[in-house]
Amino acid sequence: MGKKKAKGTTTTAAQAVRIGDGFRLADVDAAATPGWTGDRAQAEARTQELGREMSELQERLFAHGRTGGTQAVLLVLQGLDTSGKGGVVRHVIGMVDPQGVALASFGVPTAEELRHHYLWRIRRALPPPGRIGVFDRSHYEDVLVVRVDELVPRETWEQRYDEINRFERQTAERGIRIIKVALVVSEAEQYARLRERLERPDKHWKYNPSDLATRKRWPLYRDAYQDVFDRTSTDLAPWHVVPADRKWYARLAVSELLVEALRDLQLDWPVADYDVAAELAKLDATAPAGSASASGATTSSPKASKKAGKKSGKKKK
User: Fold this and answer.
1) CA torsion 72→267→18→258, rounded to 10°?
2) What does each C-alpha distance from 13 to 6, 258, 285, 301 come to in angstroms?
3) Rounded CA gap, 312 and 48, in Å?
4) CA-to-CA distance for 305 and 61, rounded, in angstroms?
5) Where is this chain compositionally biased, Low complexity type (predicted)?
6) Gap between the Cα atoms of 162 and 52, Å rounded
7) Is residue 77 part of a domain?
8) What Rg value do the Cα atoms of the chain yield, rounded?
9) Based on the domain organization, do 214 and 296 belong to the same domain?
10) What is the pLDDT of residues 202-234, one digit of tens each?
11) Which of 82, 172, 257, 317 sits between 20 and 30 A of 303, alpha carbons compared?
12) CA 65/CA 86 separation, integer angstroms
């Protein structure tokens, strides 16, 4: 599938939100929409368009995983409370077949997890071939929360940056494409979202009193995230910092990042490892009397015909 730019965009999300040399988190405008000049309605329409393409590309990936392929995709979502991680999972990942998704959330480690190396629970959750893995929070909690809350000595979390880089390199070498996204909200927007959670009974379950303790450490988290970006954004696993005050933009940006990653895999439909003509003949031998197949015609589903047309580049008349 060829790449195309939608009305309202000046560049791709991958180009606009991928961090480069000299990146400073403090300079990010959380209400900005880098790479997008259209309005919300146009962005939401574009997201739906991307979702349709994402769905087919994911099905190709899933098909390859079922037929011996080794590739997978991993979306790593980081961000402070209310940054919209759950919304991305619901509205972006929700556009594809759930059987092709491996979702993992990483909160406070359990007693069992604490008995192991901090990457133990992460390795166990890596997506198998053919899946899109999604980490709602991730191994980066072990250089963010543990640092800000002083849960381990500095010398312990300091060495983890290099460990994480090695781990991600090994993961990429296994055929897992890593997309790292940090969703950034402003202090004002976080305040508004937390207040909404307290004012609406249907959102009380989302609120935790510890959210305020985290909010008071905003400058410490900003510094911790800056070090994460400086020390773990690599060619194999670069960071993408997505302004998230406008939820619709964040979902658009992540959708485009996922679609571009899936396109780059350049997967076609797997070739059958059996004689298709012979299997059709066997199937037709079981057709009910009087059916089209029984009279010698070959049938196919509308969905299969549509996909075959896309593959050949010919339009059906």
Assistant:
1) -70
2) 11, 10, 52, 36
3) 25
4) 19
5) 286-303
6) 38
7) yes
8) 23
9) no
10) 999 999 998 898 999 999 999 999 999 999 999
11) 257
12) 26
Strands of 72-78's sheet, edge to edge?
A: 101-105, 132-136, 72-78, 176-184, 239-243
**Nearest alpha-carbon partner for 250 in 98, 82, 55:** 82
Residue 64 has pLDDT above 70, yes or no: yes
Burial 1-38 (b: 16+ CB within 10 A, else e): eeeeebebbeebbbebbbbeeeeebeebebebbbbbeb
Stretch 295-304: mean pLDDT: 48
Which residues constitute the domain of residue 104? 13-264
Which is higher by pLDDT, 86 or 316?
Answer: 86
- 8 in any annotated domain: no
Number of folded domains that form the chain: 2
pLDDT grade for 36, boundaries at 50, 70 and 90? very high
What is the rounded CA–CA span in Å between residue 243 and residue 246? Answer: 7
